[in-house]
Design goal:
By secondary structure, the chain is α+β, with helices and mostly antiparallel strands. It has helices at residues 10-22, 58-70, and strands at 2-6, 27-30, 49-52, 77-78, 85-86. It has a single domain (2-73), classed as Alpha-Beta Plaits (2-Layer Sandwich), CATH 3.30.70. Helix content is 26%, strand content 17%. The structure holds zinc ion (ZN). Zinc ion is lined by residues 79, 81-82, 84, 93, 95-96, 98.
Protein backbone atom coordinates (compact mmCIF):
# COMPACT_ATOMS: atom_id res chain seq x y z
CA UNK A 1 0.00 0.00 0.00
CA UNK A 2 1.05 3.56 -0.66
CA UNK A 3 -0.10 6.78 0.90
CA UNK A 4 -1.80 8.99 -1.65
CA UNK A 5 -2.92 12.04 0.22
CA UNK A 6 -3.58 13.50 3.63
CA UNK A 7 -5.59 16.49 4.78
CA UNK A 8 -6.85 17.75 8.10
CA UNK A 9 -10.42 17.80 6.77
CA UNK A 10 -11.63 14.21 6.60
CA UNK A 11 -14.42 15.28 4.26
CA UNK A 12 -11.85 16.22 1.65
CA UNK A 13 -10.09 12.88 2.09
CA UNK A 14 -13.36 11.00 1.76
CA UNK A 15 -14.33 13.05 -1.26
CA UNK A 16 -11.15 11.96 -3.00
CA UNK A 17 -11.82 8.38 -1.97
CA UNK A 18 -15.27 8.58 -3.57
CA UNK A 19 -13.90 10.05 -6.77
CA UNK A 20 -11.23 7.35 -7.01
CA UNK A 21 -13.80 4.67 -6.27
CA UNK A 22 -15.88 5.97 -9.17
CA UNK A 23 -12.78 5.37 -11.31
CA UNK A 24 -12.55 1.83 -10.02
CA UNK A 25 -9.59 2.51 -7.75
CA UNK A 26 -9.89 1.09 -4.24
CA UNK A 27 -8.47 3.15 -1.41
CA UNK A 28 -8.44 2.99 2.36
CA UNK A 29 -8.75 5.88 4.80
CA UNK A 30 -6.68 5.57 7.95
CA UNK A 31 -6.74 7.83 11.00
CA UNK A 32 -10.35 8.40 10.07
CA UNK A 33 -11.44 9.28 13.56
CA UNK A 34 -8.19 10.64 14.90
CA UNK A 35 -8.54 14.24 13.76
CA UNK A 36 -11.32 16.37 15.13
CA UNK A 37 -12.68 15.74 18.55
CA UNK A 38 -9.14 15.16 19.69
CA UNK A 39 -8.70 18.80 20.61
CA UNK A 40 -5.11 19.74 21.16
CA UNK A 41 -3.99 16.27 20.23
CA UNK A 42 -5.03 16.77 16.61
CA UNK A 43 -1.63 17.23 15.08
CA UNK A 44 -0.46 16.61 11.54
CA UNK A 45 0.26 13.01 12.52
CA UNK A 46 -3.39 12.34 13.12
CA UNK A 47 -4.76 13.74 9.89
CA UNK A 48 -6.85 11.27 7.93
CA UNK A 49 -4.76 9.59 5.26
CA UNK A 50 -5.79 8.10 1.95
CA UNK A 51 -3.93 4.93 0.98
CA UNK A 52 -4.12 2.98 -2.25
CA UNK A 53 -4.14 -0.80 -2.23
CA UNK A 54 -3.22 -1.48 -5.85
CA UNK A 55 0.13 0.20 -6.38
CA UNK A 56 -0.01 -0.47 -10.12
CA UNK A 57 -2.69 2.22 -10.23
CA UNK A 58 -0.78 4.67 -8.08
CA UNK A 59 0.15 7.01 -10.93
CA UNK A 60 -3.38 7.04 -12.26
CA UNK A 61 -4.73 7.83 -8.82
CA UNK A 62 -2.19 10.61 -8.30
CA UNK A 63 -3.10 12.11 -11.67
CA UNK A 64 -6.77 12.12 -10.73
CA UNK A 65 -6.03 13.77 -7.40
CA UNK A 66 -3.80 16.33 -9.06
CA UNK A 67 -6.57 17.13 -11.51
CA UNK A 68 -9.04 17.63 -8.70
CA UNK A 69 -6.73 19.77 -6.61
CA UNK A 70 -5.64 21.95 -9.52
CA UNK A 71 -9.28 22.43 -10.46
CA UNK A 72 -10.14 23.90 -7.11
CA UNK A 73 -12.92 26.37 -7.07
CA UNK A 74 -12.47 29.18 -4.63
CA UNK A 75 -15.89 29.26 -3.04
CA UNK A 76 -17.99 26.75 -1.19
CA UNK A 77 -20.99 25.45 -3.04
CA UNK A 78 -24.34 24.06 -2.03
CA UNK A 79 -25.61 20.70 -3.18
CA UNK A 80 -28.73 20.92 -5.32
CA UNK A 81 -29.97 17.59 -4.02
CA UNK A 82 -29.52 17.81 -0.27
CA UNK A 83 -28.59 21.50 0.20
CA UNK A 84 -25.47 20.60 2.14
CA UNK A 85 -22.61 23.06 2.01
CA UNK A 86 -19.54 21.64 0.32
CA UNK A 87 -15.93 22.75 0.44
CA UNK A 88 -14.72 24.42 -2.72
CA UNK A 89 -12.35 21.52 -3.38
CA UNK A 90 -15.14 18.96 -3.53
CA UNK A 91 -16.20 17.66 -6.92
CA UNK A 92 -19.12 15.70 -5.51
CA UNK A 93 -21.30 16.35 -2.49
CA UNK A 94 -19.73 14.86 0.64
CA UNK A 95 -23.19 14.09 1.98
CA UNK A 96 -25.09 12.47 -0.87
CA UNK A 97 -22.60 12.03 -3.71
CA UNK A 98 -24.30 14.42 -6.12
CA UNK A 99 -21.80 15.72 -8.66
CA UNK A 100 -21.06 19.43 -8.79
CA UNK A 101 -22.73 21.23 -11.68
ZN1 LIG B 1 -25.79 16.47 -1.45
Amino acid sequence: MKKLYTHENRMIVFNLKNVLQAEGIETIVVNEFAAGGAGDLATFDTWPELWIEDETRLEQAQAIIQGILSNRKTEDWFCRTCQEQNDASFQICWNCGQAIE
